[in-house]
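User: Modeling request: complex.
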Amino acid sequence: MILRYTFFRMLMLIPVSFSISVVIFMIVYLLPGDPIDNLLRVGSSPEDRAKLVAQYGLDRNLVVQYFVWIGNMFQGEFGQAIVLRRPVADLVAQNLPYSLTLGGLAFLFSSTVGMTLGTISAIVRHPVLDRMMRAFILLGSTVPGFWLALLLILLFSVKLGWFPVSGAGGWQSLVLPVLTIGFGGVALVARVTRVALMDARREDFVTLLHAKGLSSGTILFRHLMPHALLPVVTILALRIGWILGGAVTVEFVFGRPGLGSLLIRALGQRDYPVVQACLLMLALAVMLGTLIGDIAQAAMDPRVREKKS
Amino acid sequence: MAVRSLDAFARMSIGRAFSSGVGLVAGGFLVLLVLVALLAPWIAPFDYAAQNLMNANAAPAWPHLLGTDEFGRDVLSRVIHGARTSLSVSATAIAISMTAGMALGAAAGYFGGFFERAVMTVVDLTWSFPDILIALIFVAIIGPGLTSTTFAIAIAYLAQFTRLTRAQIVRLKRETFIEATINLGAKPTHILLRHLMPNAIAPVIVVGMLAIGDGIVLEATLGFFGLGAQPPTPSWGAMMSSGTAQLFLSPWVIIFPGVAVAVTVIAVNLFGDELIRALDIRDRLRGA
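Assistant: Request completed. Predicted assembly structure:
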């Protein structure tokens, strides 16, 4: 049953990824500015220009260009970066590990800390703790990421000198970026966990379990957690895309290499192939995240399988 | 439901949102902020663009209460004028987004069929993307500036309003009174405008109010990337952008606009929560 669901869910990815790739392909053609102009030396003739345009295949029909492009994408051939004059695949391969490390750690941080905090705040019903928790959740979901990053730099790098201001050397340079991205994530996960647990413990079956004389710990870990985990997993999976999106800002502030900073730089230089590759990778990550979330949801909740497949 | 009673209902709910302690403080702050933004030229102690290189990067002290930036401009005056930029950009963007989203969502929910599927496919597609990414792409296409920032924010939140409105309309369409109206032979436009929308609008407005907060953050982020307000126009994000170079020298240039963003967004969220409670629509917000 779950395999069937997974199969159909993955089939759905085909039209979605097709539309996304068309949008990404087209958007870049709407960008103002022309990278060929950046490449031409002063005093070049129109013939030189035409030769360059032909070299990058910019003179062909848009539909043809799309299919050539998407065919190459499938082979991992992202083309040549026009301004940086290097294979885009190299640039992506060089920057992707940094984004994955940062994203993975931020994801791990926000899920573990968020779920722990959410669980604690749902069990320990202390008014002061409750208020602190709510304040934290509010702050985490409202404070702009780049500002938090700047404040952390001011405090930990400038004042205390614990971590480097920018760059990507060693684990020390990862601490502040992970904390920055994780902060919003922790707040979100904590809120969802807290609400899910509080809703779950109001269910009749929990009263029954208490009546049967089970210990609170058993009820929490054996019965409440699996029940409450569903919305948490869904949010976490959706968060994968958001973490990558949030990483764009944070990479920029901390001057870290990564897909986000590559994208921002390429946008500034109007380097079409790089912009396309970055967007495609980010879109892929978002889609994979939602896919994982949906499958996990279906695996845990039969009702989802029935409804969607 | 007649429009007049909706109006009374809304006024009553806003009154109720103000009546709690949190609601009063948050709502009061927002009213004050709007006043400050409107009266900025008269309130600001200095000209926001007046440079004084002899007094650049001065720490907060009298008469420059929040210090000065790299050009010796008064930070307080720039934060006050920045409120104008940030609030107006975000509010305009959300108004556009909300109007377009309500129209799309209502049409999709009411007419259904292929149109609905087409709209919702596109909406779900953009929905799964981080708003900053959508906004970045859009600003990159039409170039930096406040107008493109406004439209970028509007597009980034369009999916949210479309989904929410459609969910309301689909839910309402099953109600008996709508079925009765349809059976009485009312025209679709009449049903949509007179019966469905007045009942669907409360959650959309509350989400719109909350989205103004998100819009302010997004505007600040774009401004921070240098894609929003262009110098010397003060906006909270743009101030922080130029402040990064002087991060070590004059941190106040970054701290205070950020505080302004954070406090505003927190107030918007707190007041929005009170509104949700007063209108009793928490359940209706969950569906979308």
